[in-house]
Amino acid sequence: MPEGPIWIEAEDWAPEDWDPLDGATDVIVNDPDGARWIATFVSYRHIITLAGRNCESGENLSGQYIWGSDLILIDEASRPKIEAVVAHLRSVGEFDSAFAPLDDDIELG
In this structure, are residues 86 and 22 in contact, taking their beta carbons and an 8 Å threshold? Predict the structure, then answer.
């Protein structure tokens, strides 16, 4: 189980495998009461990268669409930016709309 209040999957990757300006990462927020929440943060630039890959591979009708559950688009998928978004979503009461409850049976990381 990921530890700490906010776990960012990309922080477990090798540095050369991660570009916060052009990447996607799962994020788990662990609440003090034991509740866990998950969302995928995707940088704006990565949408273009992903669309290009899909166009070449033929996936998603050759890049005609992209979808993701509990998807949050962000300018930079770095820890400071992700923490700021989580705090903002909580402050405006939108956290539980943007994140999905995470079932304890799901293995991540």
Answer: no
Task: Extract the tokens encoding 49.
Answer: 């990268």
Between CA 70 and CA 93 the distance in angstroms is: 16
pLDDT of residue 40: 97
Q: Tell me which of 55 and 2 has the higher pLDDT.
A: 55
CA distances from 60 to 45, 65, 66, 84 (A): 18, 6, 7, 31
Q: Copy the structure tokens of residue 6.
A: 């906010």
Helices (H), the chain: 44-57, 59-63, 79-91, 95-98
Q: In the structure, what pLDDT confidence band is assigned to residue 107 with cuts at 50, 70 and 90?
A: low
Distance CA 63, CA 46 (A): 13
